[in-house]
Amino acid sequence: MNELEKYQFEILKRYVLNPNEFDRLILEYNWSRNQFEIFMNILNNFDEKETFTYQDFETTLNKTLGINYQGTKVIITYLYKANQSDKLVYKFIESMRKEGRPLSSEYLSIEKELFGKNIGK
What we know:
about 120 residues; mainly alpha
């Protein structure tokens, strides 16, 4: 097995024993350890930003990891399900609202809960 296969096998074993959304992302996108570290750095950077637009986040994911709009939607949904980066998810959806962008059904259900908690305030 090469390094990617070893890493993926390690993640798969862990996911079977203790499922979590980050391992699911790694498996779904076939990320290497380095790609996952890049993803986590992106999350940390956006978590620390006071403001950003949904386009900033989508563009960063696309340029660094080749993830398109649909992939971004999967990631935002996974982050929400994993109770990770609530402020990032909140700011992402809030930015879509401010731009007048229609929200998908996935985003509408996330918005209802997060905005009710005033996560971004």
